[in-house]
Amino acid sequence: MRIALFVPCHVDLLRPGAARAAARVLRRLGHEVRVPEGQTCCGQPALNAGYFRDFACLARRLLDLLDRDEPDAVVAPSGSCVAALRVTGPRHLGLSHPLLDRLYEFSEFLTRVLGVTDVGARFPGTVTWHDGCHALRGLRIREGPRRLLRAVRGLTLVEMEEPDECCGFGGTFAVKMPEVSAALGERKARAVAASGAAYVSATEPSCLVQIEGVLRRRGSAVRAVHLAEILASGEGGDGG
Amino acid sequence: MGRASPFRRRARRALGNPVLARNVLRATDTSLAHRREVVAERPDWEDLRERAAALRRHTLARLDRYLREFAENARARGVQVHAARDARAAARLVSELARRKGATRILKAKSMATEEIELNAALARRGFRPLETDLGEYIVQLAGERPSHLTAPALHRSAEEIRDLFLREGVIREGTALPRDRRALARRLSLSARETLRSRLLEADLGVTGANFLVAETGTVVLVENEGNIRFTTTTPPVVVAVAGIDKVIPRLADLGILLPLLTRSATGQRAAAGVSLLSGGPGERHVVLLDNGRTRMLADPEDREILACIRCGACLNTCPVYRSVGGHAYGWIYPGPIGALLAPLLRGRGEDWELPFASTLCGACAEICPVKIPLHEHLLRLRARAARAGRRGIGERIGFRAFRFLAGREDRFRLAARLARRMEGPLLRLGLLAAWTAAREAPRMARPAFHEMRGDHGPAAS
Ligand code: SF4
User: Fold this and answer.
1) Measured between alpha carbons, how far is B130 from B132 in angstroms, rounded to an integer?
2) A5, A22 in Cβ contact below 8 A?
3) β pairing state of A73-76 and A2-5
4) Which residues lie closer than 8 Å to B243 by C-beta, 6 or more apart?
5) Helix, coil or strand: residue B131
6) Does residue A54 carry a pLDDT above 70?
7) Of A25, A233, A15, A204, nearest to A125 (Cα)?
8) Could you tell me if A154 and B413 are in contact, meaning their C-beta atoms sit under 8 angstroms apart?
9) What is the ipTM of this complex?
10) B423, B428, B427, B429: which is closest to B442 by C-alpha?
11) What was the pLDDT predicted at B300?
């Protein structure tokens, strides 16, 4: 398949490894992956703050650009950006675009479109999974990532208490209501720590930023890794 | 940073109180666990929700008709039906009634509508002090507080705190031997409260209740309870008045077959309530006050209308990570949590109420649990947009997002801004200017190189 990689701005600037890893996994599965030029931000922050016009403007620009070469699919290593474009935008402001039917979050693309569960990865360690809210409730992604993780060699998946409770990031909420946001993050970090896992993973980079921030402040040794980073590691991979 | 907003200030106070935090988390966890158990027993749960949602939508779309039907049928059974345009009118109707009847002993059942109209304060101004007969309401009344939850008014209080309150207020005598175990203590406290209440339940001049539902077909007031106090409140006094929002109307008695199981299982995780009173007229004098207080305005907007489908089960509070962290008082009105964050701006509409839709991560847990399938987080987002459009978010924010749109509208501008931000990140952190993030969390560092700066097989250059 000809796949266009959608690299959301927060992935580009904060967690480029997730985009690299997603591209690597898809290429390893034999697909052609391109990164369309000119990507910036899908406008999600404006959407969640209630500035629908600003969002719509950025969303349309990005969708046009991603669709320029008419790829078979557009894949992003972020559930929230995909949910903003594919679920919330259409529902709230009638956003429509021919691309939306071909726009997928990374794990759902693997499991639902490609029907893959074993991508040939090796990742020794115990991992606990955090269900990001937008992926979970917006895109109905719950079992897919867990199946992908269970198929990884050397990896043990352990569930934390309430893996589906929000980590408290919530976009601008994280800085507009920092105390509440941090309290939610604390609870999530406690659940992660209590699971005994050495890694916490998610398909949402912004959740990882929040969880990692709290874990590090607590002096925890637990590392936050994006699902794509786990799936890209091992034999077939070339490290990093 | 400017002065913290009212919600944020109250939330901070709540978060600084570890006892409160523990109480709220513990109580909501318990409710959720019970709920999960009894919901699992009903394989038709989703079907029930679907039918309830359709029923509520149907009713609200024809509320006028059903209200008229309710009023006619209630009147036919001798009930005096009053309409109250706003909180003040409703409170006046009830306190006038109390005055006319010379009611010195007033019993009150748990009711959100009477909280909404601040009935106790209105009665107090006329020298009446009603007796709260619901245990939770009794506790918050003694403590001089307001309810912090829709179904469990004193949810923010631990058994130990209630013990101290009861000792202070003489509900329990000093020196009484009390169990140390928390659950045993809670049982003992509720017994003590009941003993104190019981004698006073047997003589009264006026009973005041809310209503869980109003049945149009029969003119019936439906009240759901667990403590037996509502039975007393509606049978002891010769005069009983129910205060109910106009949104409480349901078409037929048979609809209770859908709504009651959803309500009790969602609220307290009970298969059925200990008691359901169906009051159609009565031996004594019966009144119903139909409270509008902004509801007609909500009905006029097809989207706002959907929010009135709420049956006040409180499940969205229990599951809301924000409510679970800060409790109900932080919201600043008697309707807290996700549903409160919608009702406060739409019904009360003070400036500070319009901040509440932003006191959410939009995680959507509320919509997932709501027995009548209100997409609460979508409404929160919708109200955010309404607040932004109305300029309630300040000119700075509006310009900020416009600027962001300008920057993100072209790659070169966006890249330049990102590089600048990366350059500034270190100094900003050192100067403590990112405290909103860093007070409780380590800051993420911007990547060098960013993805778009990468070369080689897996960067954008590979394409
Ligand atoms: S909005 Fe739904 S979940 Fe919340 S109190 Fe109302 S009925 Fe219950």
Assistant:
1) 6
2) yes
3) parallel
4) B90, B94, B111, B113, B114, B117, B119, B208, B209, B210, B211, B288, B289, B291
5) strand
6) yes
7) A233
8) no
9) 0.95
10) B429
11) 97
Q: Are the beta carbons of B449 and A16 separated by less than 8 Å?
A: yes
Q: Nearest residue CA, atom 3 of ligand 1?
A: B370
pLDDT band at B176 (very low <50, low <70, confident <90, very high): confident
Q: Rg of chain B's alpha carbons, rounded to an integer?
A: 25
Q: Provide the 3-class DSSP secondary structure of residue B393.
A: coil
What number of other Cβ atoms are within 10 A of residue A67's Cβ? Answer: 18
Asked whether the beta carbons of residue A14 and residue B401 sit closer than 8 angstroms, the reply is: no
Interacting residues of B185 by C-beta distance below 8 A, sequence separation 6+: B159, B160, B163, B178, B179
Q: What is the pLDDT averaged over residues B236-250?
A: 97
Q: Do B398 and A51 touch (CB under 8 A)?
A: yes
Over its C-alpha atoms, chain A yields an Rg (Å, rounded) of 17
The DSSP annotation for A1-67 comes to -EEEEP--HHHHHH-HHHHHHHHHHHHHTT-EEE--TT----SHHHHHHT-HHHHHHHHHHHHHHHT
For residue B11, report the distance from its CA to the centre of ligand 1, in Å.
22
**Model confidence at A234, in pLDDT bands (50, 70, 90)?**
confident
Which run of H or E residues covers position B422?
Answer: helix B411-430
By Cβ distance, the residue of A38, A166, A214 closest to B441 is A214
Closest atom of ligand 1 to B314 CA is 5
Q: What does the angle CA A233 – CA A235 – CA A239 come to, to the nearest 5 degrees?
A: 45
A112 close contact with B: CB closer than 8 A? no
| Closest A-chain CA to B319 | A165
Q: Cβ < 6 Å from ligand 1: which residues?
A: B 150, 266, 310-316, 339, 369-372, 374, 376
> Which residues are paired to A70 by β-bridges?
none
Nearest CA in chain B to A134: B363
What domains can be seen in chain B, in order of their start residue? Answer: 34-295 (3.40.50.10420), 413-458 (no CATH)
Burial A12-45 (b: 16+ CB within 10 A, else e): bbbbbbbbbbbbbbbbebebebbbbeebbbbbbb
Which residues 6+ apart lie within 8 Å of A108 measured at CB? A135, A139, A141, A144
* Strand order, beta sheet including B275-279: B249-250, B213-215, B220-225, B275-279
Give the C-alpha separation, B123 to B385, whole Å. Answer: 39
A139 within 8 A of A79, measured Cβ to Cβ: yes
Q: Residue B460 has what pLDDT?
A: 64
**How far is C-alpha A67 from the chain's CA centre?**
20
